[in-house]
Amino acid sequence: MGKKAEGVFIAEEDKKVFKLTVDGKETSVTEGTSVFDAVKKVGVELPAMCYHYSFSPFGSCGICLVEIEGKGNNVRSCTAKAADGMIVRTNTDKMIDARKKAVEKWLIIHPLDCPVCDADGKCELQDLTYDLGVYDIKKGVKKEVPEDTRSVVLDFNMERCILCGQCINICEEVQQIDALAFYKKDGKTLGGAHEGVPLDCEFCGDCLAVCPVGAITSRFSKYVYKPWQLKKTQTTCTYCSDGCQITLETEGEKVLRVTSQLSYLNKFGHEIERGDSHGGLCVRGRFGFQFVNSEKRLSRPLAKINDKQVEVPWFKVIPQIAKKLTDIKNQYGGNAIAGLISGRCTNEDVYLFQKIMRTLLGSNNIDTAARYGHINSVLAMQYALGIGKSTTSYKQITLSDVIFLVGSNITETNPVASLRIKEAKKRFGAKVIVSDPIQTKMMALSTHPLQVAIGAQAFLIRGMIKAIIDNKWAYQPFIEQYPAAYEVLCQSMFSISKEDIAQKCGIHWEKISEAAELFAKSKRGTLIWGEGIVSQTGGWDNMLSLIDLALLCGLLEKPGAGIHPVCEENNEQGAVDMGGVCEFLPGQIPYSDGKERFETIWNKPLPDGVGLSLPKIIEKALRGEIKALYIVGENPLATLPESMKVREAFEKIDLIICQDPFLTQTGQIADFVLPATTFAEKEGTFTNMEGEIRRVQKAIDPIGESRTDFKIFSDLSRQMGGEAYRSPEEITPEIDLSVPGYYAGERLQGDPSHPQAAGVVPPSSRLAHYLGNGFAEEVLKRYDKTGRGNPAPTMQLVLGQSIYHSGKLSTQDEGLMKIYNTPTLRISEADATELELKDADWVRVKSDQGSVELAMSILASLPKGIVWFPEHFATLKDLMKVEIDSKTDVPYFKSGPVSIKKVPLFDLKVV
Ligand code: SF4
Ligand code: SF4
Ligand code: SF4
Ligand code: FES
User: Fold this and answer.
1) 218: Cβ below 6 Å to ligand 1?
2) Omega of the bond prior to 791 within 30 degrees of 0, cis?
3) Is 169 in contact with 209 (CB distance < 8 Å)?
4) Which pairing describes strands 842-847 and 899-902: parallel, antiparallel, or unpaired?
5) Which of 137, 160, 238, 250 counts the highest number of beta carbons within 10 A?
């Protein structure tokens, strides 16, 4: 299939309007609308097997036929465009007959092995045969093609393929991966990976979802169900913060497969709100469900007795924990207690946890996974703008004219959200600027790639600001409203030359300046940033510089423009919103500002002073001053490098409670281990990275004796004299009172009444305060700080993300581990040549913290001087030295200097 032309954005109001008649009814549509969609507008549902809302019409199945006066019979309505004055007839005998004939044609080349087909009962060919009354089924012609079972996830049964092309189109146009094609073999047309090689792709499974028949099947769910036998529960994916809606399909207490809107809305041109989501999923959401029913799930509580963890019943363990916590509080005060809760817990879980910590245990030492980076975004945005989350939405991102993506490998961390950027470019003609030290997939697709030297992102942002100021491209209303702040920004750019910036970034000044001009002059520009800038040294400063850039480009005022932090875990944003960090009470209210109000709401005194973040909790534990630590769904021993001395700190704590569905490394040293459920067994809500509330619905009962986090907290609360709640629903009125309007954003995808859809965030009074108070001093100091530039002095190890995993949860999933379980150290071609390395060689990676030996492989997209390893696997994390942000306590350990040496075979120590 040839590549399709990239789209050009035409606003709806600028399109011509055509009037036409369908079956005698008048309708009007805008130019470019297909006849199929025009027909749909008058309420007629035409059958279709290759037309799909998510990609351009292909016109292969010949089912959607209509008569158009002057154009004759048998016009494929999906590829024909509506025109002014057109007269369309859909229901003539001739058309019905022609559609029947088309279905008969496909039945002849289809094996009719319905009894053993996974699509039986959810098959468009079956449905159309029935709907159109095709009762005389001719004997089919077998293609004699064996099923292709060579891929790790998807099987291709070409006997069943009706050559509709949907799998190829969705992969090429929506995913923009282009892994599939039709190819010829022995005179037959077959579909699958290009040229018939085994499929090795991102395994998003969108092709599986749109296949109208059972030609593509999942190996993880094969022959174990008939679609109508499965109970379907819509909930929210637990992996990343995109907040995709998924359907858990279960039999009894077992999840058998995951589907989404894309699997069910592909008939008769059904459509969902475009731009918001295409209704599909990524590999983790679709295939990473096996951890729910994993054999490794904990089913009974454990308590350490004589240094051994033994099973104990719930009725004993809750009173024991409550007593120990209360004793510690009474003896040492609440300050000796700390809590850590996962960004994968629901809003209701986090709210109740922090309430228990603050009101019953008298401790404000609370933290969550947002501390690993996202808190930099929230704190900086709050500090400067008074907003602690994205100011835009997926729909607005899709309709942006210029997108600047900084330090985010978004296709790997947030794959479905990344499709919004891909769609913006391909369908609507947006310009996409991508800045990263690594040639990410998004950089490869971008219009303006800025591959910056490692550690030089700050210089690049500064360069863009300098170009905007020097060329007077800044947003005029900002200059007029804040002349003094603008003057300061101008001054801060004097001390660095464009040559210096270009040299440090390793990018020609012209390219930086071109990107800056494009972004500054954008009408609906979007600035998106992620872990590559917030979880790296200088994260807080970088955030403030990004805010400067956003202000100079008018992104907080231009309608449709916005700024958007990418966070990784599904509910990192919600965890911060619910007061799961020491700085904030629920609603992101600074602790000292909200203490009195919450004392009234909760009717309990709260501890004095802001509590401790995770790094500070560890520091204090090392001094023996933390006596109890309650860890929920987090695993600091596996996440943080040894240089943070987590183990040493934890060994000094008298009481560690670890609540998790699995026995993690941290759980293994805990005094109590409480078996929690997964999201599939929970009710509640997550907040995605747009700030949208997404519902979590229980699909199965808790496995074994595991209990939901909420129930465990509620039982503990009751035991310690606090409130008990029977369900998360019971706490929502209190959350609504604490954070007015928090749930009001709850909506179906695509609801235009959502307040953010309007897209304009007025400059808040917070901004005026920020720009008027100490801004000059802070800015001049910040831009004066020196940073690392190009070339980096030594080889840099980067711990990055892989699409097949998310944090450490996915490594508990059998399915995802089947797809990707043997990470290698990735090395650039240039370094491999210099070090005389070839794929599968073993290398010794050495830092000042130690050394590790492992296998390597070449990654062509890496620049010289960077080696890469997926952070989901703990193999190399201990080589990293941690640096703690002095402002936000974010621990930076995602990159650092190492040396690489080939390990001769005879010298190899297998680890
Ligand atoms: S699984 Fe996704 S990436 Fe792979 S071929 Fe199908 S659509 Fe393309
Ligand atoms: S495999 Fe399925 S989606 Fe792909 S061309 Fe064949 S029938 Fe269509
Ligand atoms: S993009 Fe994120 S939320 Fe969506 S399916 Fe994938 S992991 Fe789940
Ligand atoms: S040809 Fe129009 S839906 Fe297939």
Assistant:
1) no
2) yes
3) no
4) antiparallel
5) 238
Strands (DSSP E) contained in 697-765 are none
CB atoms within 10 A of CB 466: 25
211 lines ligand 4 (CB under 6 A): no
Nearest Cα residue to atom 2 of ligand 1: 204
Q: Which residue has the tokens 């399109």?
A: 15
Instruction: Note the pLDDT of residue 541.
Output: 95
More confident residue, 619 or 225: 619
Distance separating alpha carbons of residues 234 and 245, to the nearest angstrom: 7
Residues β-bridged to residue 89: 67
For 307-316, what is the mean pLDDT? 98
Pick the closest to residue 669 from 695, 686, 647 (CA basis).
647
Q: How far is the CA of 201 from the centre of ligand 1 (A)?
A: 6
Q: How far is the CA of 57 from the centre of ligand 4 (A)?
A: 8
Q: Ligand 3, atom 8: nearest CA belongs to which residue?
A: 285
**Residue 324 to residue 338: CA distance in whole angstroms:** 14
Alpha-carbon distance of 353 to 275, in angstroms, equals: 36
What's the gap in Å between 170 CA and the centre of ligand 2?
11
Q: Is the CB of 244 under 6 A from ligand 3?
A: yes
Which atom belonging to ligand 1 lies closest to the Cα atom of 178? 8
Distance CA 71, CA 88 (A): 10
Highest mean predicted confidence (pLDDT) among 194-198, 237-241, 793-797, 902-906: 237-241
Entry pTM: 0.94
Of 206, 422, 803, which is best to mutate to test ligand 1, by the most ligand atoms within 8 angstroms of its C-beta? 206
Mutate to test the pocket of ligand 4, among 39, 40, 58 (most ligand atoms within 8 A of CB): 58
Q: What are the pLDDT digits (tens) for 111-163?
A: 989 999 999 999 999 999 999 999 888 877 888 999 999 999 999 999 999 99
- Provide the pLDDT for residue 72: 77
